[in-house]
Amino acid sequence: MPTPSAPRNPGRQQAPEERKHNFDEVAQIFTDEEARAEANRCLHCKNARCQANCPVGVQIPDFIAYVKEGKIGEAASKIMETSLLPAICGRVCPQEKHCEGNCVLKDKFGSVNIGMLERYTADTARQRGLLKAPQTASKTGKKVACIGSGPSSIAAAAELARAGHEVTVLEALHAFGGVLRYGIPSFRLPREVIDHEIETVKAMGVRFIPDVLVGSTETVADLLHQFDAVYVGSGAGLPTMTGIPGENGVGVYSANEFLTRINLMQAYKFPQTDTPIKIGKHVVVLGAGNSAMDAARSAMRLGPQSVTVCYRRSAAEMPARAAEVEHAKEEGVTFEFLLTPKEILTEDGRVTGIRFTRNELGAPDEKGRRRPVEIPGTEFVKKADTIIVAIGQRPNPIIAKTTPDLKTTSRGVVEMDEQGKTSIPGVYAGGDIIRGGATVLLAMKDGIEAAKRINAYLEGK
Amino acid sequence: MQENEIVLREQLNDVVVKFEIYKPLIAKSARAGQFVILRGREGGERVPVTLVDWNKQTGTITVIIQAIGKSTSLFNSFQKGDRFLNVAGPLGTPVEIKNYGTAVVVGGGVGIAEVYPIARALKEAGNRVIAVLGARTKELLILEKEMCAVCDKTVSATDDGSYGMKGRVTDAIEALYKAGEKMNVGFIIGPIVMMKFTSCLMDKLGIEPYASLNPIMLDGTGMCGCCRVSVGGQVKFACVDGPMFPSRTIDFDELIRRTSEYKVLEQESLDKFQHEKDHVCKCGLH
User: Model confidence over A14-43: pLDDT tens digits?
Assistant: First the structure.
């Protein structure tokens, strides 16, 4: 019998005092007993709202039923029928917005901890050798190139391979995973988890090629000569800066640079690794999205005296996941709200502080978020020697620039018609290149959906 | 032959090595003024290096590397048959090659190698091309023969007068100007201070100056913004918008500050590398 009224197990975590000195994963995996007990809370609703609200349609009650029975291999295979990256999804998906946010137990007893169960299933199946790469259909003889190796491209590649196509993933950097690799820190997503998930996709026959910057090494037109279809999943690899004076001062990082040094280049292991990073005594992070939290928490692990997240609206408008904000606070990151940065102050070109004005919240903008309005005469200077600008990303323009026929909006976002096609036949796109900056899960969803369209397109070809 | 394999290695002087690397995809699409990113080992840096030459037929690219820090020292220890771990490119915006009239190409030190493909392309586009090559001393002055072969006139200058005229590239350019040489455009590659003063001089002499900037880079694809430079009051990313920029309005002082950010750590890394290389183990554990 299910035990829905048993308390939700939030999972164990590395203690804040300990984890703020290392880059190891914060959340600890469920034990078999914990997993079974948590699985036992699931009511297996007939019209499961959790599943209906999953961007990638994971069959949640079914996989949980297997966990209950201790059939972890079967549980993993069930998840992988719709989502090929369960160890990643279990970690970085904002479950509170999707499955767990819609669990019928949510208000009365607390949602089933689906995220932790998915993570447990994926990790345990892998450790016990029960994880099987999905079967692929018989070879179609059709070739598809996926540009980028981030979540949307990997998801597309896996679905296309499943349909029997010969798939090649082209990555500009030296390591695969895109934003998972350069953006998300190892304390949220251990590097070996990314490696493992990519191994699964490779086991399905997908080729991964590093060091190919499409638009430069080869153009989309070149690819269309070699492949029957192309998926553009090149992401939002262009940092937005504030444009305020002093931003080129020494000690100012974009979140992309700061996180790339730490995550992709492993600068926190310097001089064992060759790429250095510097951290000041007082770190200011501008912005309050997930990248800002990742940057702030990474900065904290490099041992400064203070890390402050400064945001132009109030706590309620922060775009970051609540859990990330909570983790950051536990680790000692402080938050200051309703501040607009006006100027970065420097001495001999090196950052010494930042001048802010205070804001109040005005009328809502087009997205319904209240707009910050500066209050005259409230300027003040905050001392800082490292500033991390984490106010958003835009699509990397290289592909658009070198593919004149590919229609994009003024913001560099690739345009799609109602059928999800770009302006070039055989070229599809998804993830941040069409969204301008969203989540891993939405990127994966785009990849899966685009793969289905590509399958249909190739069938008719 | 394998991708990234060194098919030819030539020691040009104590610290400078020329490599030909097998990399057909880059050899196929490279253009003058572009660069590649090299990595030598796991955990290694991504090091931007200008493309000196490329050959579609053999599928090889040529780079010339001066050992300055740890990574470049590691690269230069590679032998024929060794492989770079990663070779990515071609990166950056190619230099606009057209007939400018008379073009002067200025190379300082290893910058001579970097400006070579631009000189050659300008010559092919019908320009009268003058090369001004500068180095501290004779041994560091490289590729003079190759430059002579693609330029209408080549002037060399060394700081100590051990070869060519005694003085700096700016002295050589002034001398050319005084001798009545009319120059329309200049492409400068070398140490930042040299580029700064050469730009200044060219501006004064009515020569339109361009300089190839070498800020610190990470991904080299426009993703991180580490390489941002100020040109005409605007922020540009050297890796995608450059590396060659009209240099009259470049903030060279900012570039100097930004490139020295990691000097101390870079030295630490180099010292560690050399210590480990030179260390003859007596404990029997290594």
Answer: 999 999 999 999 999 999 999 999 999 999
pLDDT tens per residue across span A123-146: 999 999 998 888 899 999 999 999
Which A residues, 191 through 220, put their C-beta within 8 Å of a C-beta on chain B? Answer: 210-213, 216-218
Indicate if A180 and A209 belong to the same structural domain.
Answer: yes
Facing residues of A355 across strands? A343, A381
What is the per-residue DSSP string for B38-87?
Answer: EE-STT---EEEE--EEETTTTEEEEEEE--SHHHHHHHT--TT-B-SEE
Domain final position from A127, A159, A189: A127
Mean residue pLDDT of chain B comes to 94
Which residues in chain B have Cβ-Cβ distances shorter than 8 Å to A264?
219
- Claim to verify: residue A257 and residue A221 sit in the same structural domain: no
- Report ipTM (2 d.p.): 0.93
What whole-number distance in Å separates Cα of residue A87 and Cα of residue A120?
Answer: 8
Whether residue A287 is contained in a domain is answered as yes
Per-residue pLDDT of A350-384, as tens digits, reads 999 999 999 999 988 888 888 999 999 999 999 99
Distances (CA, A) of A459 to A229, A424, A444: 12, 18, 23
Torsion angle of alpha carbons A252, A257, A263, A269, nearest 10°? -50
Which of A368, A393, A418 is a domain's end point? A393
Are A38 and A120 within one domain? yes
> Does A375 share its domain with A245?
yes
> Which pLDDT tens digit goes with each residue over A317-360?
999 988 899 999 999 999 999 999 999 999 999 999 999 999 99
Amino acid at B71: S
Is A134 part of any domain? no
- Domain hosting A265: range is 239-393
Co-location of A348 and A260 in the same domain = yes
* Chain A residues whose beta carbon lies within 8 Å of the beta carbon of residue B85: 174
Question: Are A280 and A312 in contact, with CB atoms under 8 Å apart?
Answer: no
| Whether residue A290 sits in one domain with residue A148 | no
CA atoms within 13 A on the CB side of B192: 17
Residue B170: how many other CB atoms lie within 10 Å: 19
- Chain A CB contacts of B45 under 8 Å are 265, 274-275
- Each residue of B209-233: b (16+ CB within 10 Å) or e? bbbbbbbbbbbbbbbbbbbbbbbee
Lookup: tokens for B90: 């071609």
User: Is A5 part of any domain?
Assistant: no
* Residue B283 in this model has a pLDDT that exceeds 70: no
Nearest to A167 by CA among A141, A187, A189, A195: A141
> What's the gap between Cα B214 and its chain centre?
8
Q: What domains can you pick out in chain B, each with its CATH number?
A: 6-91 (2.40.30.10), 102-259 (3.40.50.80)
The number of domains in chain A is: 3
Contact call for A248 and B39, based on CB within 8 A: no
Q: Tell me, what's the pLDDT at A420?
A: 77
Distance from CA of A73 to the nearest CA of B (A): 33
| A173, A255, B104 from A299: Cα distances, Å | 23, 11, 47
Q: What is the pLDDT of residue B97?
A: 97
The CA distance from B213 to B192, in Å, is 8
Structural domain contains residue A4? no
Q: What is the rounded average pLDDT for all residues in chain A?
A: 93
The CATH number of the domain holding residue A51 is: 1.10.1060.10
C-beta atoms of B91 and A213 within 8 A: yes
Of A211, A237, A349, nearest to B88 by CB-CB distance is A211
Q: Which residues of A333-361 are buried (b: 16+ CB within 10 A; e: fewer)?
A: bebebbbbbbbbbbeebebbbbbbbbbeb
Q: Do β-strands B165-166 and B228-231 pair in parallel, antiparallel, or remain unpaired? A: unpaired
CATH number of the domain encompassing residue A147: 3.50.50.60
CA atoms within 13 A on the CB side of A165: 26
